[in-house]
Design goal:
- There is one protein chain.
- With 242 residues, this protein is mainly alpha-helical.
- The protein has one domain.
- The protein contains eight helices and no strands.
- The chain has helices at 3-44, 52-68, 74-106, 108-116, 126-162, 173-206, 213-232, 235-241.
- Helix 2 packs antiparallel against helix 6 and helix 6 packs antiparallel against helix 7 (213-232).
- The chain is elongated, with a radius of gyration of 24 Å.
C-alpha cells in the first residue's frame, strides 16, 4: 500500500469516527431535551395541571383537611409511615444502582470484549464507554438526592401531622394556616418523589446508548410515551377524573 493510499484510508476512518461522534452527541442531546421538555410540561404548564400527579395533589389537600376534623389520627400516621418506607426503599435502590454503574465503569475492558464478540461489532471507544458510565452514575446520583430529600420532607409532613390543631379548633385561622403549610410541604415531597421516579425511567432509556446512539433515540422516545400515557391516558388517570 502506498503512502497516499494509507493516508486516504486514515482520512476515511477519521471521517467515520467523526460521523459517529456527532450521532452520539445528537442522541444525548435528544435524551436531555426530551427529559427537560417533559418535566417542564408536566410541572409548569396548564396541560400538566390535568396530569395524574396533579389530580392526586388535590386529594392530598383533602386528606389534610379531613385530618383536621379527626381526633384519632393513628391511621393517618400509619399511612405516612408507609409513604416514608416506600421513599426510603427507592433511595436505597438508587445507592445500589450507583454501585452497579461504578462497577460497570471499572469493567470497561470486559464490556469492550463482550460487545466486540457480537456478530455486529458494537464496542465503542474506551473513553466513550467511560463517558456513558459517568452519565449513568450522574443520573442515579440525581435520583438518590431526589428520593432522599423527598424522604426528609415526608418526615416533616409527619411532624406537621402531629402538630395539627385538635378538632375543636378546626375553624380557627391558625388551623387554616396549618392546613395550608402542611399541604404545600406535602405537595413538595410528592413532587420530589415524582422527579426521582422520572429519573429512574429515563435511566432505563439511557441504557440504550450503551448499545447504540440510534437505540438511544428509540428508548428515549419509548420512555416518554410510557410515562406520558401513565400521566394522561392511563386507567388510573381516568379513574381519578371520574
Amino acid at each position: 500500500m502506498t503512502r497516499d493510499a494509507a493516508f486516504a484510508g486514515e482520512g476515511k476512518h477519521d471521517g467515520l469516527n467523526m460521523t459517529g461522534y456527532w450521532v452520539d452527541v445528537a442522541a444525548v442531546g435528544f435524551f436531555a431535551l426530551e427529559w427537560l421538555v417533559y418535566a417542564i410540561t408536566l410541572e409548569h404548564t396548564a396541560y400538566g395541571r390535568d396530569s395524574l400527579s396533579a389530580r392526586m395533589h388535590a386529594y392530598r389537600e383533602t386528606w389534610v383537611r379531613d385530618l383536621l376534623h379527626r381526633e384519632a389520627r393513628m391511621v393517618d400516621m400509619q399511612i405516612m409511615a408507609s409513604l416514608q418506607n416506600g421513599t426510603a426503599f427507592f433511595a436505597s435502590t438508587s445507592l445500589i444502582a450507583i454501585g452497579g454503574a461504578l462497577a460497570l465503569l471499572r469493567a470497561t475492558g470486559d464490556a469492550q470484549a463482550l460487545l466486540g464478540a457480537l456478530p455486529l461489532d458494537l464496542s465503542p471507544q474506551p473513553a466513550l464507554w467511560e463517558v456513558k458510565c459517568i452519565g449513568l452514575i450522574l443520573i442515579f446520583i440525581y435520583t438518590f438526592f431526589k428520593f432522599a430529600w423527598a424522604y426528609r420532607l415526608f418526615n416533616y409532613v409527619a411532624i406537621l401531622f402531629g402538630a395539627m390543631p385538635p378538632a375543636g379548633q378546626r375553624d380557627t385561622p391558625e388551623a387554616e394556616a396549618h392546613v395550608i403549610r402542611t399541604t404545600r410541604l406535602f405537595e413538595s415531597a410528592g413532587q420530589h418523589f415524582n422527579r426521582g421516579q422520572r429519573a429512574f425511567f429515563f435511566a432505563l432509556g439511557y441504557l440504550g446508548w450503551f448499545i447504540s446512539p440510534w437505540l438511544l433515540f428509540i428508548t428515549t422516545a419509548a420512555v416518554v410515551v410510557v410515562i406520558w400515557r401513565r400521566q394522561f391516558a392511563s386507567n388510573a388517570w381516568q379513574a381519578m377524573g371520574s
